[in-house]
Design brief:
Layout lengths: L7 E7 L18 H7 L3 E7 L5 H10 L3 H4 L17 H7 L3 E5 L16 E3 L9 H9 L7 H14 L6 E7 L30 E2 L8 E2 L11 H28 L6 E6 L5 E2 L5 E3 L6 H4 E7 L9 E3 L3 E2 L3 H8 L28 E4 L3 E5 L3 E6 L1 H13 L5 H6 L1 H9 L7 E5 L10 E2 L8 H11 L13 H10 L4
The chain binds zinc ion.
Length: 481
Amino acid sequence: MNFKNPPSVLLITVDCLRPDHLGCYGYSRPTSPCIDDIAKRSAVFTQAISQGTYTVSSLTTMATSSYLFEHYLSENVLGVELNPSIPTLAEIFKKNGYDTAFFGPWMAANIKDFNRGFDAFDLGTMGLSRYFFGGLKRLTSGRYDPGSAEALTSKAIRWMQKKSGKPFFLWLHYFDAHAPYRPRPPYNRMFVGDGLGTGQGRKPFVASRFLGAGGIPRFISERGISDVDHYIAKYDGAIRYVDGQIGRLSSFLKKRGLYENSAIALTSDHAEYLGEHDLYFCHGGLPLDTLIRVPLIIKPPAGAPEGALTIDRQVQSLDITPTLLGIAGIKHSTPFKGQDISCVFRGEKLADDTGVFFWARHIAALRTPAFKLILLDRDRIIARLGSARSAKPTQRSRKWKTVFPFQLEYLYKEGIPASIFYDLANDGAEVSPKIDRPQEAEGLYPALNDWKGRVSELRGGPSEHFSREVREKLKSLGYIQ
Ligand SMILES: [Zn+2]
């Protein structure tokens, strides 16, 4: 896009936010009046797919438009450095004359060098616990500060107040919709007992394990309450609390005359299990749709068409960096893996959807609108499971790293499969997985392997995801259009 005055750009990420719990995506509870207000002037993407199921991996993908195996941060592990050869969104904005700031929770401290390119980088009071497990301990002990979204917003507003008129890139990451869902009053009780719960009467046991497999994690549970709806109401209250803070940001921008000429993108790093697949109030692990379908709302700056747009084509978190740069009219030569989708604001159609790929440590996957194939490195997963069992309980980091294998072991009690296939067109809830090379998935294996072989040289989004040969083959099999 071309502008006389380059627009400021806000990226708002809300941890654990599910699209189907927002008004603008059709939710019945009034969780999001302020987000809905932004959505009225935005493109609302109904099929936005996150690359990560953990905070760290997902935020890093957003910041670099690179795959998990490239930026090195595939899970919430300590001490892994962000790949120094990959430029970040903030660095590119900075190079192009923007002031840059990030305000977020302690979790971002886990990404070494995530502050690259930011003039201001503030992890708040939670940032004092510099290392992840210090933060986790506070979270699980219930000492999480319920006022953090408010403090974060105040800091962001103070930062904007001091600015002299130069365009800025501001990234806020709100953590308050993350378990244990303890927003301050009145949000903590706002939706409790209103009869609008979506837990379908589920009452699993109150689990003692952190994972949330088969039961409610102990650190979330209240006086042994096992009604899932109770906790969903708390989760929704936390969303409403964050929504109010996003409203504060919008009001500030409007008062300053900055709202019109600012681009605002709102999304989530991953969603949250609220009982699907018998997993409760947790995330991480397999890229199942419950987790990887996230909200994506992009308000363009003035000059773009008025009114809301609904875009049903599959897009991904890899697209956020090139799109925000495209909206700001910034030219660059970085070989991003995502695609600039800002053409939708010029009334143009996006190219055909040929699928979203994942590749993390022990997992590779391909998702098309109709199918999903997940390949698992079974031997390495089983080896990790074994070493986790023998780890001493005091070795917290090892315990954390085993969440993924434990989840797989829980979901697949008969044995961890080497591949999992979902027919999304007929099984959108992914309740009927087919394991280990079912007939109908046969054509997808070469596609995924072809992509793995070529991915390092790819750039520019889905049109280059397949070699011409594989593309034709997939078309003939009906996997893609
Ligand atoms: Zn997260």
